[in-house]
Amino acid sequence: MKSSANRGTGSNRPPVRSASLNRNTGAAPGAVRTPSAPEMYGFTEEPYRDMSQQYQGATPVEEPFDYSMMGKPNNAAVVQKKKKSSGGSSRSSSSRSSSKKTSSNTKSKDAPAKSKPRKKKNPAQTKKVLAITVSLVAIAAVVLGALYAFGVFKPRIEVVMADGTVQKIKAEDAFAELTEGDRYYDGTLVNDMNIGGMTRGEARNAVSAALEAAPLNVNIDLQVEDTVYDLDLSSLTLSVNTDAILAEAYALDRPTDPEDLVRLTECYNAYQQLKNRPAMYKTAYTCSTDGLNELVHGVLDPLFVEQKDAVITGFDKESNTFVVEPEVNGFSVDCDKAAEDVKALLDERIYEGLVEVDSTVSIPEITLQYINENFGKISSCSSTASNDSNRNTNLNQACLNIDGTVLNPGEEFSFNGVVGQRTEARGFASATVIAGGQTENGIGGGICQVSTMVYGAAVKANMEIVTRRAHAWPSSYCDPGLDATVDWGNIDLVFRNSSQYQVVIRAEFNSSTRTVSAAVYGHKLPDGQHIEFVSVVNSTTPHGATEYVANPNRTAGDRETLRNAHDGMNVTSFRVWYNAEGAEISREEVATTNYKMWVKKVEVGTLLPGGGHATLDTTTGEVITPTPAPTATPVPATPTPTTAPTEPDPQEPQQPEDGGDA
Predict the structure, then answer these.
(1) Which secondary-structure segment (H or E) carries 194?
(2) N or C: less crowded end of the chain, CB within 10 Å?
């Protein structure tokens, strides 16, 4: 660096750089940075001052800049001693500057500067700077420690005090205030006692000492409609919930995490508000409900009654009315709700009271009144019998066995099962039956007229026909296709009660009028409807010539009709529905019957008075008597055997054919 003395008085001089810091603006504009110096704060330029005027008569001295204030000693500064100039003018000797690094731009263009050897660092000065630095660091550490100790850097929360003012307090102070001491907050009331400031043990002793005495007993009854039933709850135990209440009160707005500042703020604000609005708790005696349901059910279950419909058990033949077992109303109670209501009283510390039990009465659909109003005769069928005493005896006995039979829904009626086997011991007599395509006598003959009347009544009552078989030919007491024959062990009439209600079968023989009738009593058909049982003959086959058969045991010429002639028929029967006004609604096919054609069969005797047999013309039925031969001398000869009429093998059973008890 050149000395300022080398410059002329009025020459342009570079500005002198001041050491005053400008922290706001940074480095001064136009400042020249020394490459070796670290970049620190900026400097401001000051106006140029002629240093020669200040130091007149003395050699000007270039003062070094103290870099120690910037944390770096000025080891490159050189201080020159002052000398007097011989020429009377102030001149500065050529300054020798030995900086660590001198920029080549500072050298004079006219006279290059000579390099000077670098001076060694001053150890004393270095130690001084180091000591100052350490001291500053120590001071800074002490200041920071003091600030931390005073909580300058600790987190704070903004809280609302009890008087409504808002303050900022240290979070750790708030947490300590809320948690230290294991004590209840002021404004915590249990059973109207302020336990604020008490420890948990102190609060328990205080609350327990002030508790009301436990009730001596629990007296809660159950009322079902107008009757009160005692509920014995002596087996249940009483206990007080002091510990649970105190635990709940202690946990009220008590923080658990000191770093959760949001929750801490909420708890502190609530804690402050307790001073204005106390938190109130109540202890209660509670009754153990273990076994309560069983106790309630033990009282109420016996009151349960199962609902039952009215049931027809018989029939009064004198009044033609049903014998009915009345209905039973169902009764039930809500045991579970009753137990819940009792428990609710106990939970509310109510130990005496009356619980009304919900009950339900259920009315059956089928009642005695309903049966009386809607049950009666559904259908009937009748016919006139012949004047045959034995036959009529059989008709009467069959009717007696049937009359009053009750069929439940879905049950089947079997004629043979109800009437039973036809024997003399059971009141039946021998009468005409159809067997082998012809009539003959048999025990129980004639009862097919009863089975036919029952069949017609069942069809007209809309019963389901299961089994039915027609006679060998149409019967005289009903229209073709409407008959039903029976034979013990062989042919049966079966129908099912397909309604939803019980029915009663009535059968009666009126000896004075020789009338056979059958009727079905039960739930009447809807809307006044009724059913008629009719048949339609689809086709007929005329019968042929009379058939004559010889009887060698009958006097020649005697005749007996074994079977009348019957045309063959194809017949369809229908169930026809009529409304209350008598108009036909619909018709349903019941059965199709095919009757075989039968010729008349006549039996003719061939036994001659003097013995022997006449000949029968089976075409005309004429009996031919043989002519006597002339008398001659008897000549012994081998007799010619005569062929006797074929008779049925008495060992061969004769089964009824398409018929039975005619």
Answers:
(1) strand 193-194
(2) N
Q: What is the pLDDT of residue 428?
A: 94
- 395 CB burial (10 A radius; 0-12, 13-18, 19+): buried
SS3 555: strand
Per DSSP, the three-state class of 499 is coil
CA separation for the pair 435, 431 (Å, rounded): 12
H or E, element range at 448: helix 448-460
Q: How confident is the model at residue 215 (pLDDT cuts 50, 70, 90)?
A: low
At residue 449, the 3 state secondary structure works out as: helix
Interval 140-161 mean pLDDT: 77
| Tokens (6 digits) for 264 | 């801490």
CA distance 458 to 446: 20
Whether the per-residue pLDDT at 242 is higher than 70: the answer is: yes
pLDDT tens column, 528-558? 999 999 999 999 999 889 989 999 999 988 9
Contact 253, 185 (CB under 8 A): yes
Element (H, E) at 468: none
Quick check: helix, strand or coil at residue 553? strand
Structure tokens at 318: 């004198």
Residues in the chain: 662
When pLDDT is cut at 50, 70 and 90, the band that residue 405 belongs to is: very high
Chain-centroid distance of CA 70 in Å reads 87
Average of pLDDT values for 550-573?
A: 91
Residue carrying the six token digits 């929360």: 157
In the block, residue with structure tokens 């529905």: 577
CA gap 447, 485 in Å, rounded? 9
Dist. CA 122–CA 76, nearest whole Å? 11
Cα–Cα distance measured from residue 41 to residue 19, given in angstroms and rounded to the nearest whole number: 10
Query: Residue type at 332?
Result: S
